[in-house]
Amino acid sequence: MNSSQSIDFAMIFDRAPVGLCVSHQRVITACNEALAGIFGTSAGALAGLSFSVLYPTMDEFERTGERIAPILNQHGHYSDERIMKRANGELFWCHVTGRALQRDEPHAAGIWSFEDLSSKRPVTAELTIREREVAALLVSGKTSKLIARQLGLSPRTVEMYRAKLMKKFNATTSGELVHRLLVGTQAG
User: What are phi and psi for residue 83, nearest 5 degrees?
Assistant: First the structure.
């Protein structure tokens, strides 16, 4: 690229093929149309709002923030797949990746990307808040012991939630449950 060409970073951000946003203290300071489209609203409507509007419940918003802060502190970035909520109330699986711009203050400022996974992984069962959290960690390959540590639960409690999920998804093994969570089927 020669020096007479300039890069319009604002246009690149706005037209990126993935949902992007910049945050300050878990408030959306700027987002692109791709992100707004994923959540069924406009970029202008999201600017200035708390990330909490993207979560199924306030409890999930708060617990996710508590869970990811130490990871952002340690690594400076975070990624997972979780169930999020569109403006119309529809729940869907979403891949979320973020980077803290101030590693020692993980929620101070960040850049986040969102990928809608609903075409590959529809939400097919009514799940409780904890079932959604356990399901998200199961599909990321975590064991019951790791899930328990991450959620602040006992491994036995995690096993109870896994059993409930297996029943809801008509799965007979943990591997079958993870497969059904990944493809969004309840019965085989």
Answer: -90, 125
Residue with tokens 């990330």: 51
Question: pLDDT, tens digit, for every residue of 23-66?
Answer: 999 999 999 999 999 999 998 999 999 999 999 999 999 989 98
- In the chain, the DSSP E strands lie at 19-24, 27-31, 77-85, 91-100, 109-116
* pLDDT score at 184: 66
Phi, psi of 57 (to 5 degrees): -145, 160
Which residues lie closer than 8 Å to 5 by C-beta, 6 or more apart? none
Sheet-wide strand order for 27-31: 27-31, 19-24, 109-116, 91-100, 77-85
Q: Which fold has domain 9-116?
A: Beta-Lactamase (3.30.450)
pLDDT band for position 83 (50/70/90)? Answer: very high
What CATH code is assigned to 129-183?
1.10.10.10
Residue in the block written with tokens 């993980």: 106
Other beta carbons less than 10 A from residue 109's beta carbon? 15
Residue 93's nearest CA partner among 51, 128, 124 is 124
Dihedral of CA atoms 179, 117, 132, 163 in degrees, nearest 10, equals: -10
